[in-house]
Amino acid sequence: MRYSFLLFFFSLIHISLSAQAPQGISYQAIAFDSSGDPVIESTVGVKVSILDNSVTGTTVYSETHSPTTNTQGLFNLNIGEGAATTGSFSNIDWGTNDKFLKIEIDPSGGSNYSITGSNQLMSVPYALFSENTNVDNLPQSAPRTSSNEDGSMLVIYTDSYAYGFTRSSQNIPDWYSQQLSGTPIGAMATDSSIVVYTDSYAYGFTRSSQNIPDWYSQQLSGTPQDIVASGNTIVVYTDSYAYGFSRSGQNIPDWYSQQLSGTPQGNTINGRDVVVVYTDSYAYGFTRSSQNIPDWYSQQLSGTPLGGSASGDMIVIYTSAYAFGFTRSSQNIPDWYLQQLSGTPQGISPE
User: Minimal CA–CA distance to 48: which of 72, 78, 93, 13?
Assistant: First the structure.
């Protein structure tokens, strides 16, 4: 049976321009068979090659992967983290010539690859070339992108501007620009909004309560640590504050800030429309109240935080002595629920 392969999405992984650029590109794709059906829940063999200058150019790097597809035929991999067969990913000269991505696949999971096409990498040089470049002088022609899950909006951003592409309230496609303050760090998307953040500001792109696309800015206090999304909510947190981007009970997009007590542990946990950020002494849940108003809910922790997990709209953080559950009551009121542990914690399920 002859198989085909359809590119679904690829983008640069989340990076910090103030540190060494990570050597990897996050890649997602869907494998289809000759009948147009996805190859589901199967291990597929994938060979990735970076070509220099053209679709028929010299292979400067190649690697192999054996990812497993999900129930939709989707698989994920990080280019740069596979088994190298040609060259070294860290030695690719992104600043010289255009680079092209070639994907080959064996749907049976082996190495009998079928060539499925090549595409020019348009956004790679900005992130991977930036470690050897003055960030203040990055070219406008080397942007990064982020798209939301339902495909109704996309943001492309440079070192100084973000541009949102979507439809107006009159269903007319258009661009919406936003000047950025500070050095861009990364972006995150949900099915209703996209957030781009720098070392000093976060910018949310979504539709107003009048269905008009617009940008919403939030100045950040402290050094940004990470970004996480859940449902229609995106949270950016620093070493001293957490900021949630969501809609009010009146369907108005807005930012909601929460000062943090203690040192963030570098972990966030997200469930269904709920995000928890925790430090060495407190946990903070961000979700909607019973009046459908986004808000933060704090819980002092007893003991040293060890980790946590999410299931649906429930999140549990546990320490060396206690477990703390964050969810909604029977009256749909978000709250924390405390449980003292007897003995030494062994882990949490699901991980």
Answer: 78
- The per-residue pLDDT for 150 is 47
Sites in the chain below the pLDDT cut of 50:
1-22, 123-150
Architecture of the domain whose range is 3-128: Sandwich (2.60)
- C-alpha 225/C-alpha 236 separation (Å) is 8
Given strand 45-52, what is the order of strands in its sheet? 83-86, 59-65, 45-52, 99-106, 114-120
Sign of CA dihedral 53, 57, 58, 61: positive
Q: Would you state the pLDDT for residue 117? A: 66
Query: CA–CA separation, 79 vs 33, rounded Å?
Result: 23
Indicate the length of the chain as a whole number. Answer: 351
Residue whose tokens read 């861009």: 184
Q: What is the number of alpha carbons within 13 Å of residue 147 lying toward its C-beta? A: 12
Q: Cα separation of 90 and 131, whole Å?
A: 11
CA distance 323 to 345: 10
CA 37, CA 308: separation in Å to the nearest integer?
A: 37
Strands 59-65 and 83-86 turn out to be: antiparallel
Tokens 């429930």 — which residue? 314
How far is the first Cα of the chain from the last one, in angstroms, to the nearest whole number? 38
User: How far does CA 175 lie from the centroid of its chain?
Assistant: 22
pTM of the model: 0.59
State both tokens at 215: 């940008």
Would you list the domain boundaries of the chain?
3-128, 134-340
Helices H, strands E: what count in the chain?
1, 28
For residues 29 and 74, is the Cβ–Cβ distance under 8 A? yes
CB 73 within 8 A of CB 32: yes
